[in-house]
Amino acid sequence: MYSENCAENNVKLSSTPQGAVCGNTLAKPLGLENFRKLTYGERMVGLGYNPNCSKEVEKIKRLFAEVLDLIKEKNMEQVVHSYESNQLKESAIKEVISAQMWAVKYITFKD
Question: How far from 93 is each of 5, 34, 41, 64, CA to CA, in Å?
Fold first, then answer.
């Protein structure tokens, strides 16, 4: 089980209901009544995984999660999807996830 306390952020990341992130749900550390299901983008960027509790990493993940959610919303609006449309969507998702991973790698890289 992954669990990390972040004193500077006053956030606890955990895979248990006691923490801010539990599986595919987010909650405030105060209690279970604040849980909500993670969005598609939040799941895809791994929003709950930030072992160093870096504010920069969290910001990057949230921004890229928002982009992925916009792509997903656009996909839900269309009734019929052409082959080309599906290819563009899949490429966009793949590239956004890749860019997010590289941005986090750069932010956390130690020379």
Answer: 31, 29, 9, 10
